[in-house]
Amino acid sequence: MIFDLHPLHPNFGVEILGTDVTRPLTAAQIREIRAAFETHSLLLFRGHPIDDARQLAFSKYFGEPQISFSGNQTGGTHFSRQSNIDPETDALLPLDHKQMVYQSGNVMWHSDSSYRESGSLCSILSAREVTPEGGHTEFVSQRAAWEALPAERQQALEGRFAIHSIVHSRNLIAPNLLTEAQEKEIPAARHALVKVNPVNRRKSLFLGAHASHIEDMPVEEGQALLRELLELATRKTEIYSHKWEIGDVIVWDNRCMLHRATPFDVTRHRRLLQRTTVPGDASDHAVL
Ligand code: OGA
Ligand code: MN
Questions:
Q1: What is the pLDDT of residues 76-135, one digit of tens each?
Q2: How many domains does the structure of the chain reveal?
Q3: What is the number of the ligand 1 atom nearest to the C-alpha of 273?
Q4: Which of 54, 71, 194, 278 has a CB 3.0–4.6 Å from the CB of 63, allowing a cystine?
Q5: 189 strand-pairing partners
Q6: In which domain, by residue range, is 76 found?
Q7: Residue 286: what pLDDT?
Q8: 285, pLDDT greater than 60
Q9: Domain assignment of residue 130, yes or no
Q10: Is any atom of ligand 1 closer than 6 Å to the C-beta of 251?
Q11: Ligand 1 centroid vs 138 CA: distance in angstroms?
Q12: What is the CATH number of the domain that holds 147?
């Protein structure tokens, strides 16, 4: 082992001590980080403020980052900016600004890009400006949620598919937020309700705010099932809540984790996190 690992939650998550992700990593370091990612689902690195170019370079150790959806401020770039600051004027954005409304959807538990067919392998989020209070990001493991289900419930869920859609999740916060062109940009995607990690074969649920209903099940029944599973997965004891400090970088596995933003006083405090997102591939979707 090159690195020391410090656990963050009994179910998942480690802080990796003694590495600087703003510098090029050796093949052995990359291997160890990738192995820790598959096992622990969330990796925290602290103490090394990162810029966009270096975040992009670090992200590429996990895969080629996707271009972000045009609904976000930084749409069309490799970054998905999570911020209440106007990048043009550096002033705080008004509450009713489109970006603030779009971003408010992040307080719902979700897996990034589950509305895309490819889903996402992982997101990499770095803290550039942080709040003195509030504005934590919370995480839960859908692997732990799966493992806690009785065998007969597991059996009933295997082989099911959910439909995930950004139109669905944004409609929950503000109908008509997306333009017609944006709605067409990303049609709904179909994902197995139970995912299998291709490296260690561990299974997890695959839920979140973009999941609108379950295929081949009456819509309301499917939605009730999704709600019930989400409640089980996100009980208080299952949550790791991260209080950001400048220089923190978190990588999480979108195949088996859910996350959400928590509120802060957006009229008083500045917050800027930058996210890169690596897409998944068909092997994440194995239905067994
Ligand atoms: C994200 C996200 C939550 C937050 O970057 O994908 O959901 O706390 N962020 O900003
Ligand atoms: Mn997110």
A1: 899 999 999 999 999 999 999 999 999 999 999 999 999 999 999 999 999 999 999 999
A2: 1
A3: 10
A4: 278
A5: 164
A6: 4-279
A7: 37
A8: no
A9: yes
A10: no
A11: 9
A12: 3.60.130.10
